[in-house]
Amino acid sequence: MSGETGSTPPKRPVPGPPRGLVLAAGAGRRLGRGPKALLVREDGLTLVESMVLALLDGGCRDVTVVTGACSEQVARLLAGCDRVSVAFNPDWSSGMGSSLRRGLQAIGPGPDVMVTPVDRPGICAAEVARLIAAHRPRAITAAGHCDANGSLRRGHPVLFDESWTSQAAAAAHGDVGARDLLETRRAVVDLVDCSDLDDGADVDVPEDLHRLTVVSSRD
């Protein structure tokens, strides 16, 4: 016995690696080449495969991919991938908000979660690792990218501390995901400059295809 009469207050457990969440349910109608998740890059990887690898190689413990349009093809593509699970969103056509809610529901309460849509071809493992290293407890950490005027703009990925995931799910609606939460809670959002790694651009319409070399859309 040490003879101490007091007790040490419990500490918040040190969080483990975050869980990764890829929103890959859209049909890609504006692009006109089928679901963006299935677009094939010059290196032979689909966008969904490259995003999963970036999250895992960057330090996420596992990855959940939310599917919708062409869900069977995406699930088949990822079948057998280690530390990857698929969650189907039956309401995928209502917008990204329902996919964010579905993904967070599939992951469940507890862990920090790093979220990204599938159509950000520049996201890489180094960017994911930088966000994880910069993350503070009870904060939201987002990648920032410089625009044409040199201003740092919030982009993806976004790392939600476990204390914010339920609010992110509640705030998600339409096609804006958790944007409203990020705007109203700016004080807890840390922007990490990743402009040297990624320009933050997405692939949304045919004019955006210069941002990646598309070989085909995999069946």
Automatic annotation (TrEMBL):
CDD domains, per database record: GT_2_like_f (cd04182)
InterPro entries: MobA-like_NTP_Trfase (IPR025877), Nucleotide-diphossugar_trans (IPR029044)
Chain spans, region Disordered: 1-21
Pfam families: NTP_transf_3 (PF12804)
Coiled coil: none
Domain of life: Bacteria
Entry's EC annotation: 2.7.7.76
This protein's UniProt keywords: Nucleotidyltransferase, Transferase
Name of this protein: Molybdenum cofactor cytidylyltransferase
Organism: Brevibacterium iodinum ATCC 49514
